Amino acid sequence: MWKPRDRAAALKPLVFLLCLAPIAWLLWRLLNNDLGADPVAELEHRSGDWALRFLLITLAMTPLRRITGWAQWIRFRRMLGLFVFFYASVHLAVYLSLDLQGLWTQIFAEIIKRPYITVGFSAWLLLLPLTITSTKGMMRRLGRNWGRLHKLIYLIGVLAVLHFYWLVKKDVREPLIYAAVLALLFALRLPWKRWLTAAKPAAAPRT
Amino acid sequence: MLIKRPDDIAAAEITDESVYLGRRRLLRTLGLAGSALLVGCGQKQGNTDAKAETDSSPTLDLARKTDYANGEAQTSFKDATHYNNYYEFGTDKSDPAQNAGKFQPKPWSVEIAGHAEVTGSFTLEDILKGQSIEERVYRMRCVEGWSMVIPWAGFSLADLLKRFKPTAQAKYVAFTTVNRPAQMPGLSYAALDWPYREGLRIDEAMNPLALLATGMYGRELPNQNGAPLRLVLPWKYGFKGIKSIVKIEFVERQPRTSWNDAAANEYGFYSNVNPDVDHPRWSQKTERRIGAGGGLFAPRIETKPFNGYAEQVASLYAGMDLHQNF
User: Taking every annotated instance into account, which residue ranges of this chain make up the domain Ferric oxidoreductase (chain A) (predicted)?
Assistant: First the structure.
């Protein structure tokens, strides 16, 4: 029988492969010429979807630990976080190389002029320091500041959802679902327990 | 007013349908061979669909064929019918093709109202009476930054409007799309204030480029592309081309239009294709051509004022500030 700690280690390669599944599926569709009428937009949208989904999955690890009591959830967090950066970078690369095709003057104009691109690009930029400092060595070196720095993921989450919300022409139902999940993940981090237990003694001082 | 149009293309230069279909067959075969080599699997679903749809819908008698797109490569039938916006069938671009199956475009009637000597309800047959259907290949530019080249079939909007003898008070023409929640699942979501409305100034409506389309690719219009009667205005963004028209009204004041109502800062009443006036989300300087070869690495195309039809329509807007009246 495995100890829980070993189970997490054994699950890691499987989770890694699962995280690659979306990009593998996209590549398969690309090779089969099955990306629809506007393959560039399809690649752009699907890679963006997955960057956002992985961000939410990454943010789910801490609440999952609290809810399930299984501490090992946290051991998947770095890998999942790096996949956020991976899919966000694919998303950006498709946009720059296939969509705008390196029309550099247009790229800079677009990033500055269009709020949804400004916030999307900012989110990617903010992911950079988190990615660079994701190693154990960096964690050690940064000490308490590592945790502070990595709180940026909350801001990145907000920017990413905003990026999606502003991009949509009229039907905002889908970005609102992501916003709701993000809000839920934020809410689960609030110290509900402390508040609830703090409220009790005032309510019933029994003798 | 003198209306200029490009020299009509010689009949010999218009591709004959059998040649056109033959070419498609050849491409299909090549595509098949290609994908079979690449991944060693069978025929793609998509090709069969497109073929079935082209072959089953009735062919139209086309009196005349004119290429207003300067011979640019045409978007495939499959892409033009499976990637478009028709929010009444859903807001995703694949929704219209998926959800338009239940829609019944026959029988159909169109109400003519407002400042005209002849008004009332007319069946589609009445509307089409005496009109010879011609093919016109037009570029179509979507406000979202993509474009297509589509061989529409239809007749001049002006020809129809003149039959109702609009009076001097008729300064604008307002159009309304059908509103049938039972057949149009997208209507259950208020993406726009239904029914969809569009409008033109009367001189714009009378421009010979304005086409009432009844078909595309030599066949009747598929439901998802606005059957049985839609507007095509190649110098304006695609959303001005209102689909499945049930009402045409001659009015004195500029009518309300759906997208202008929804976000006036993003969608103007005129919505002429203009590379100099950016949409807050999409640059209008360049566009991506859909489904006309090139695929993933097809270069972006520079967007032209009035989508390249300035010669025919620019005079309509003489003296107007197109940054204000976008």
Answer: 48-161
DSSP letter string over B288-319? EE-SSS-GGGPPPEEPPGGGGTHHHHGGGGTT
List, in order of start, the domains of chain B with CATH numbers. 11-317 (3.90.420.10)
For residue B148, the cross-strand partners are B140
Kindly give, in sequence order, each residue whose CB lies less than 8 Å from that of residue A41, ignoring residues fewer than 6 positions away.
Answer: A99, B146, B288
| Residue B179 known to bind ligand | no
Residue A77 lies in a domain: yes
Q: Which domain holds residue A136?
A: 4-189
Cis previous bond, B228, omega within 30:
yes
Residues 6+ apart with CB under 8 A from B75: B148, B149, B150, B289, B290, B291, B292
B33 touches chain A (CB under 8 A): no
Q: Could you give the strand order of the β-sheet that contains B172-177, starting from the edge strand earlier in sequence?
A: B120-123, B109-114, B245-251, B172-177, B197-201
Q: What is the mean pLDDT of each run of 10 residues along chain B (326 residues)?
A: 52 53 50 42 40 64 92 94 96 96 96 98 96 96 96 97 97 98 96 96 98 97 97 98 98 97 94 93 90 77 96 96 92
Residue A116 has its nearest CB partner, among B31, B44, B281, at B281
Nearest to B290 among A38, A167, A171 (CB): A38
Number of domains in chain A: 1
Q: Give the pLDDT confidence of A15-70 residue by residue, as tens digits.
A: 999 999 999 999 999 999 899 899 999 999 999 999 999 999 999 999 999 999 99
* pTM, rounded to two decimals: 0.83
Model confidence pLDDT, tens digit, residues B133-144 = 999 999 999 999
Is residue A201 in some structural domain?
no
